[in-house]
From TrEMBL:
Domain ABC transporter: from-to ranges: 9-256
SMART domains: AAA
Keywords: ATP-binding, Nucleotide-binding, Transport
The protein, known as: ABC transporter ATP-binding protein
Superkingdom of the source species: Bacteria
Organism for this UniProt entry: Hoeflea poritis
CDD domains per UniProt: ABC_Mj1267_LivG_branched
Family that this chain belongs to: Belongs to the ABC transporter superfamily.
Gene Ontology MF annotations: ATP binding
Length: 260
C-alpha cells in the first residue's frame, strides 16, 4: 500500500442506537485501498455494530457510508456484497449439514437458474456457469487448504477450519474488500498462521482488509493502520507504534474487560 492510496471505504458521522443507547456515535472511518486496517477496542466498543452498519445488516440513525466513491448506506447486505464488499462473522455461520464444497457452491454470486424466467433452452448456459462455479470452488479450496475436508459436513470442522471456510466463502465472489470479524478468535496457532498467510497473499494481490481483532500481537504485526474505538467513538487512528503508546487507548483498555 502506498501512503497516497485513495480511500476505498469512508464512513462519515455514522451513528447507530439501540433504544436510547448510542452503540456507534458519529464515527468517521477511512480505509485506504490496499491496506490491512485493524479495528480494535474493548468489548462493547461498537466495532461489530459498525461492521453491521457498513454491510447493511444494521440500520444507521444518520451518516454516510461510501465504498469506491459510491454511497452504499441504506443498501441491503446483498447489494453491498455485489459492490465488492464482503464480510465474515465473529461466529461462523456455515450451512452445518452441507459439505464444505456445497457451502462454497452456494456462496457464489450469479447462481445459475436462480432467475425464474430462465428458459429450458438455456440449460447449456446454466451447466457452463455451474462448472465455472465448481472450478472456482476447487481453486478456493486449494488456496484455503481445505481440500482434504471438501466432502465433510461444515458443522464437523474445527473452529479454525470454520474460520478458513468463512474466508473461503467470501472468496467465491472475488471481493475488492473483505471485513473480518475476529478471524483468529478460537483458532489454534497453526491455523492462525495459515489464515494470516492467506490474508497477506490476498492483500498482495490487491484485496483491502478491515479486521476486528483482539489478538494485539497479530494486529500490531500485520495491520498497516490501526483504528481504535471505545464507547462508540474512534479514539485513535494511526500506526502500531503510536497505538502502543497512546494513553487514551491504554486507559480505554484498562477500564474494560478484553478477550485477548
Ligand atoms: N442488537 C442489539 N441490541 C441492543 N444492544 C446491542 C445490540 N447489539 C449490540 N448492542 C450493544 O451495543 C454495544 C456495542 O456492541 P458491539 O457488539 O458492537 O461491540 P464490540 O466492540 O463489537 O464488542 P466485542 O469486542 O465484545 O464483540 C454493546 O454495549 C452491546 O451490548
Amino acid at each position: 500500500m502506498t501512503a497516497a492510496a485513495p480511500d476505498l471505504l469512508e464512513t462519515r458521522d455514522v451513528s447507530v442506537s439501540f433504544g436510547g443507547f448510542k452503540a456507534v456515535d458519529r464515527v468517521s472511518l477511512n480505509v485506504k485501498e490496499g491496506s490491512i486496517t485493524g479495528l480494535i477496542g474493548p468489548n462493547g466498543a461498537g466495532k461489530s455494530t459498525l461492521f453491521n452498519a457498513i454491510v447493511g445488516e444494521q440500520a444507521c440513525d444518520s451518516g454516510s457510508i461510501r465504498f469506491r466513491g459510491k454511497e452504499i448506506g441504506g443498501l441491503t447486505p446483498d447489494g453491498v456484497y455485489h459492490h465488492g464488499l464482503a464480510r465474515t462473522f465473529q461466529i461462523p455461520k456455515p450451512f452445518a449439514a452441507m459439505s464444505v464444497f456445497e457451502n462454497l457452491m452456494l456462496a457464489a454470486p450469479d447462481q445459475p437458474g436462480e432467475h425464474f424466467w430462465v428458459p429450458v433452452v438455456a440449460r447449456r448456459r446454466i451447466d457452463r456457469r455451474e462448472s465455472e462455479i465448481a472450478e472456482r470452488a476447487r481453486e478456493v479450496l486449494a488456496f484455503t487448504t481445505l481440500e482434504s475436508v471438501a466432502e465433510e459436513a461444515a458443522g464437523q470442522l474445527s473452529g479454525g477450519q470454520q474460520k478458513l471456510l468463512e474466508l473461503a466463502r467470501v472468496l467465491m465472489s472475488t471481493p475488492k474488500m473483505i471485513m473480518l470479524d475476529e478471524p483468529a478468535a478460537g483458532v489454534n496457532p497453526t491455523l492462525t498462521r495459515v489464515l494470516i498467510e492467506k490474508i497477506e497473499q490476498l492483500n498482495a494481490d490487491g484485496c483491502t482488509f478491515l479486521v476486528i481483532e483482539h489478538d494485539m500481537d497479530l494486529v500490531m504485526r500485520h495491520c498497516h493502520t490501526i483504528v481504535a474505538m471505545s464507547n462508540g467513538r474512534i479514539i485513535y487512528e494511526g500506526d502500531a507504534a503510536g497505538a502502543q503508546s497512546n494513553e487514551t487507548l491504554l486507559n480505554a483498555y484498562l477500564g474494560a474487560t478484553v478477550d485477548a
